């Protein structure tokens, strides 16, 4: 029996979630955008920030 070759594909999509939000809501195009946790629960972390918004945060907090 022949061994199957496995291929692993990794995509690093910088600011993916903010890119999706800006594409979904064109009015945000010229604004700095941050995607974070649930505001109703008042908890969560920043999941994604557009490059223009990243400069406002501590670099240790956003990879």
From TrEMBL:
Q: Which SUPFAM superfamilies match?
A: DNA/RNA polymerases (SSF56672)
Q: Which residues form the UmuC domain?
A: 8-63
- PROSITE patterns with a match to the protein in the record: UMUC (PS50173)
InterPro entries according to UniProt: DNA/RNA_pol_sf, Rev_trsase/Diguanyl_cyclase, UmuC
Q: Which residues form the signal peptide?
A: none
Q: Which family does it belong to?
A: Belongs to the DNA polymerase type-Y family.
What name does UniProt use for this protein? UmuC domain-containing protein
Native species of this protein? Paenibacillus phytorum
Organism ancestry? Bacteria, Bacillati, Bacillota, Bacilli, Bacillales
